[in-house]
Every structure is written in structure tokens, then in C-alpha cells.
Amino acid sequence: MGQLLALTVGLTGLVSTVAQAQAQADYPTKPVKIIVAFPPGGTSDVMARMVADEMGKLLKQPFVVENIGGAGGTIGMDRALKLPADGYTLIQTGVGQNAVAHGLDPQLKYNSITDFIHLSQIHSGPNVLVVHPSTPYKTVKDIVDFAKKSPGKLDYGYTHAASGHMAMELFKQTTGIFMTGIPYRGGGPMLNDLLAGTIPMMFINQDAALPHVKAGKLRPVAVTSVQRNPLYPDVPTIAEAGYKGFEALSWSGMSVAKGTPQPIVAKLESALAQVMQSDNIKQRMGSVGFIIPAQGIKPYTAFVQSELDTWTQVIKTAGIKPQ
Fold it and tell me: Where are the domains of the chain?
């Protein structure tokens, strides 16, 4: 009787294991959710929906974006990590919620390295240092020289903890200048004030700046990538201005919660690498000046760690506190 019971239990376990392996091999067999930790319409949301469309075509199941905004992206991260780690929830990770957030709050509810498997980076793009055309500043040197001669007399706009805010803090620390920051609750009101000449300068995402630059309403001074951006071929990098290695990027990627089965992780990693090389994504990314980064778990995990270390140190040096 005991042997029969043991055999029955063993066979049940074997059947369960085989069924689980089959389900992983057949993945996905139902729609997959992508958690975006910001409201619809922003760059993060646009990137996620672009990837969702292509992943759905490739894997023959819908990939559906769900926006869970709030607290700089941290609410979405926390909520996503509480869902089953079964491959049916992808998590859009990014600079705000997975690098900057750790510098602002050392007691964050999640660890962006140990709680995630970072599948692949999706986009990377610089901020642009722009000034109102009525100002005399045409180069990084012009700005630095004035700020050193008149500390605190030059203003700039920023939105708390946004990529442009971080770029400005790194710029001030790298160049050794002191300027006066004017805080804004959102990028829209800040941009309107810059266009009106109420504030003289700010860092802004390159795609958001482009129409105003083309219209002559903003003057681009420098970009924050290591190499020049294709949308701004005539605009130098801050590194070219003498600050070697300066880099401040807006970026996002796709991740899953730790514990997701390895066969599913491997399938998602491969699929993401494939869709990121599709003609449609290449065209859409290039049209807004974003580069397609190195694909895969290894480079993206190393990149997230590097960004987390960089921005934690910048925030600590600047004394920035959470709001």
C-alpha cells in the first residue's frame, strides 16, 4: 500500500512537472500585460506600446499596456512585483523608477537589481540643453563662464527628479558652477515659461525640444549623450565642450519579476532582440532621435546598475530629497 501511494505521488509530480514544462514551451498561451509606471502619452508609454505591437505580432498573443502612474514610477514598480512571476506580466523599467528613485529613497520597497530580471533595454536618448533665443548663450562655455563670474545669477527650470533635473545637477557638479533652480510641477508649464522667456534655460528630452528648435523658438546648446544625436547633427555634446565622459540619458527597458521561469525568460529575451531589429521599430526610433541600445539581459543589467550608482551619487552630492 505504501509503495503504491509513493508511486502515485511520484507519478502525479511527474505529470505536473511535464505539464508545467509544456506550458512554458507553449508560452504565451494568453494575453501578456506590460506595466507602465507613468500615465498614457509620455515617452515611456509610447515606447511600451511600440514594443507591445511588435511582440504581439511575433508571439501571436496580445501584449496589453496597463498604466499605473504615481510617485515617480515607484507605485507601478511595487504593484507589478506583487503579481505572479509567470511571464504574463512584463515590467517597463526606466531611469526614474529604477535609478533615480533609489537615490531619493534609500528605503524603497523594491531593489531594482535583485527583484528584477532585466530582459533588454528598449530606448536611450539624450536631453538637450536649450536656451531662449533672446539670451546671449550659444555654447556651454558661454554658460559656464557667466555662471562662474556671477554665481547664482543664472536661473534654470526643472521638474523634480525628472531626467532633465538630473542632467542639470550632473552638469553643475561636473562644471563646478552654481545656478538657481526654479521648480515646476510638470514639464508642460516649464516649457511654456521657457518659450515665453520667463526662464532662460533648461534640459529637455530631445524629441520634445525638436519642433521648437525648428521653429526658432529655442536654441540648442548641447546634447547630453556621448555622441551627437542624429536629430541635432550640428549640436555638440557636453563632452565635446571639454567635459569628457559626460552622459545623462533618458532610457527604458523591459524586465520581469525575479522568479519568472527560465524558459520564458529566454523566450522573451530572444523575442525582444528580434523585434528591436524590425524595420518598423528602427524607423520609429530613428524618427525621434532614439538609438536602439545593445540587446539582452547581460548588457541591460549592467547598464541599470551603472545608472543606479551614478544617479544615487549625484543626488547625494546635490542633497536632493524626495517630495
Answer: 27-125+250-318, 126-223
